[in-house]
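ingest -> validate -> predict -> emit
validate: passed (alphabet ok, no gaps, 524 aa)
predict: started
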Amino acid sequence: MIDVTRGAGDGEAQTVTRNLSTRYLAIIAEMVIGLVVLPFNVAHLGAAAYGLWMLTTSITAYFSVLDLGYSSSLVKFVAQYRAKHDTRALNEILSTTFYLFTVFAVVMYVAALVIAAFLDRVLHIPPDQVHVARVVLLVTSANVAIGTAFTVFGAVINGFQRYDINNITGTISGVVAALVNVAVLWMGYGLIPLVIATTTVRVLTYWVYRANAYRVFRGLDLRPRLFRRERLREVTSLSLFMMLIDWANKFNYSIDAIVIGIMLGTTAVAVWSVGQRLAEVTQRLTNQLNDILFPNIVDHAESSRLDRLQSILLIGTRMSLATVIPIGVPLMLMGDPLIRAWVGPDFHGSVIVVQLLALTVMVRIGIATAQTLLKAAGRHQLVAYTNITTGIVNLGVSIVLARHIGLAGVAIGTLVPVTAAGLFVIFPAGCRRVELPLMRALVDAVWPAVWPAAAMAAYIALTRPLIPVSLFPVLANMGVAALVYVATFLAFGITATERRFYFSKVFEATAWARVLLPGVTGHA
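emit:
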């Protein structure tokens, strides 16, 4: 088994730990804020006004398609030219994309103005709410448009591997926005003042991101004279494939509900959505590491450090699996009591959906490091074509099986192509890219993370009959099962040297939590 402590430099490990720990801090803060603020908003606004807010805001989510993959590509080029110490090229890339994103922002807001003009024809909105809906749409669209124009500043921070600064800034902004939200409604104001106030907080946050970018990259220089057509062509050569990857991912995630709605009806969509929500939460919680590794991979690919790339693939795959398995396996084995305790017996059809989608998520997370490596190290075309093919096969198989076995068929239609693409295309291609034998990757990265699941499964098999169908006992038993996995993995799945290495990183993350804001100031 490879010694992971040798493959990654201590400074690199500290950077990943810092970025990952603050990312989870941001996620936890977001979840807590949502848990507290959502019922407060519904109670003070009323269901109709809150629903109107969510409906109009959801329209702006589709503006991201106008990005055309450039934002995903920009982090790669920032990391690439930073690794080459080429400040001139970096500023040309950033200046070119800054003015490009400014054009995108104008197009987005023009689109919002057009939609607002015809909003009462597009959506079924009562006449007395049309004015409010238009104002809310235009204000939230302004936030999205300004955020698009400021994309380059976030890309600078992420490309310089300072995700922690963005994470902390975003967390503070979220807390401030929540406080402003509560204050506005507490003083008796309605939906329009609420949206204007919270949007103001978010827009001001973009200026903080801008200031942070200039602190991280002190040579940052955005000027019209640095706009270069050749740099635009360079970024576009990657952005087109990143766009295909992003669109294919959205297609894979959204197409199932559409198929179900057409073939099985809206009631079946509601049953499906319960399992889908649990799968989405699991994927979000367990895929943070691979997003953070992207600029690290670009850095090592530029310097042709195959030893570092091999270590990233092995460590990232193992830790991704070790993160998702203790959540995914309990979801599969405790899915029935969990669904009955959470949403009731009427949603029993969600159990098979949860089980199959949990397995799908485990496969996705297991090959996520290999996919990130391919995107960052020049094999993005393969990822794009594979994702598109997976989406097409997903659609075809789901349609065929939905006719015969209902929701289970749709879930199988998702599981089969994702698993085939991951195990037979993406993961082997990742190994080939770093010149790592496939068997070694399976032995060193996959097997140590997979086999401890047997101990967890045995625990669940023994305790499940004893657990009452109540939400807290079910969740508690799933938590204990996860601890059984973690204990087995740490005790027998890794070496003593690796165990000390991982514990040291946990302690570093804890230290960052204790000195969060001073840490940001000291490392800017």
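Confidence is low (pLDDT under 50) at residues 1-8, 512-524.
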